[in-house]
Amino acid sequence: MTRDELEHVLAAVLDVGEMMLTSGAEVNRVENTIKRMMQAYGCNRVDVFTIPSNIVVSVQTMEEVVLTQTRRIANYETDMYKIERCNALSRRVCAEPPTLQELKNVVDQIKQEKGYSSLTKLITYGVISAAFSVFFGGSWSDGVAAFVCGLLLYVSAEACGRLKVQRIILNIVCSVLVGLGAVLLTSLGIGQSVDKIIIGNIMLLIPGIALTTSVRDMISGDTVSGMLGLCEALIRALAIAAGFALVLWQFPV
Predict the structure, then answer these.
(1) What is the pLDDT of residues 92-105, one digit of tens each?
(2) What gap in Å lies between CA 143 and CA 145, rounded to an integer?
């Protein structure tokens, strides 16, 4: 394999690592995937350094050709199906490496695959919010109000995402809007307990996967990556709490 071909292979493999990291995979899994795929293409040494915001890969072939590429990670969106597809591609590469063009085609196909429709996500947000509201002791009317607030939460999150608002600011804005929606609905007689309505919607904002992944990273020995992920998850949780607290401070219940 020529140096130019190896550079393109490394770029495609980095795309796989980026998709896994942004979709919720832990750092150890991302690093192992990149390492095994590059070794399958003839690299006898592969050094991968991954943190939640960056991936750096340096490879060396038997002919002592050394290449290094880096990838900046900015946005995250949990997608377990995409992680599964990337894992399947990794196993295929390790079993029998496809040609460069085949590899690019599969990577592009995974990138372009669309998840659930916006309507499905909208309804799911509402149903989950309503279910958690009732689960934590709310009445059925609280569940209805939480359903409406869940719809508002999805619309707010999508709007902030399209405007490329930072995740921490997004959490504060969504929390404030949902809190105001809960107060407004209860004042109109739709729902009885603002706190139960808010609880149902908080569950959609809590960074549970990020928190769990960071703990797994630390257990796996990736202390730096785990601490960075943990700090980000805690800051996002504080932002959520601050948004709801601001509403409840202005409109005590």
Answers:
(1) 999 999 999 999 99
(2) 5
